[in-house]
Every structure is written in structure tokens, then in C-alpha cells.
Amino acid sequence: MTGWTEFTGQAPRIAAIFLRRHRATGNLCLLATIRSDGFPRISPLEPLIFEDQLWLPGMPHTTKFADLARDPRFCLHTATADPKVTDGDAKLWGLAHDVTDAALRRRFAENLYAETGFDLRNEEFGFFSTELTGASAVEVGDDHLDITIWNPGQPERVVRKH
């Protein structure tokens, strides 16, 4: 499983763009899952990095988490409203795994409360770990478009389009 530190070591450019866009939107991203009828679903989500892992937490019993429980494939996209993409754009994709480990869930909730004041310590919540299987980012220059691509175990590569 590719942890966050391993990902950032192999794909520092994509990780930097993801983190910049993630912070700029108050942690909001768009999560793509596969519905039971096979069509895609896009849902808002606030993913978090904790203990060297990217986590997908949220309200329990939602359709997006039902999708992930049935088919773990996902794509996470930084929320972008700028058609010129002046601050970049990133996508991470992979597999999500439902976390039932009570001690880990407690540590996550304690950490979330300490960092943000949002209290899930005595609440039920959806909680999925992620295994990153690829990523990409886009940056727009004056006369070009840079597309950075990463696959596990490989350094990121940049494709420039004019």
C-alpha cells in the first residue's frame, strides 16, 4: 500500500499541487465513485492526512460510502472553479478500504478534535483508508500546459503540451 510519505517522495510536484488546492478550498475535494448501476457518482468530501495515510472520513451510511464498500475504486479531485486553472489541479486515484479498527478510529477522532475542534469522538462516522494507484496534476503556463503523471514505484513524469 502506498502511504502518503512514499507518495510525496515519488510524486512531490503532484503532492504539492494537491495540498495547495486542498488547503485553498478548506479541504474540500470531489470524490468519484461507481454507483450500483455502474454509472459514476461525484460527491463532496473533505479527505485528511493522518498517520502517513490519506483518509476518506464523513457522515456514515452515505451513498458514496456504500459505493466504496461495494467497489473500492475512487478518484479524488481537487475542487477547482477557475477555468484557467491558474493554481493548478490534481487528481488521485486508488482503492478505498473501510476501517473498522476501533483504536485507529479513536486516534483519528482525537487528532481531528485536537487539530480542528470538530468532535467525532463519540460519534459514528464513515472512515476509509486509501491505497493510491495513480495521480496526475495540471499546471498552466503562459504558452503551455504541464501534465504531471505518477504511478506507484515510479518517479513522476511531466508531459508538456503547447
From TrEMBL:
GO molecular function, one term: coenzyme F420 binding
One Pfam family this sequence matches: PNPOx_N
One GO term describing the cellular component: cytosol
Protein's UniProt keywords contain Lyase: no
Top-rank lineage group of the source organism: Bacteria
Domain Pyridoxamine 5'-phosphate oxidase N-terminal: 27-114
The keyword Cell cycle belongs to this UniProt entry's keyword annotation: no
Alphabetical UniProt keywords: Oxidoreductase
Protein known as: Pyridoxamine 5'-phosphate oxidase N-terminal domain-containing protein
Organism of provenance: Mycobacterium bourgelatii
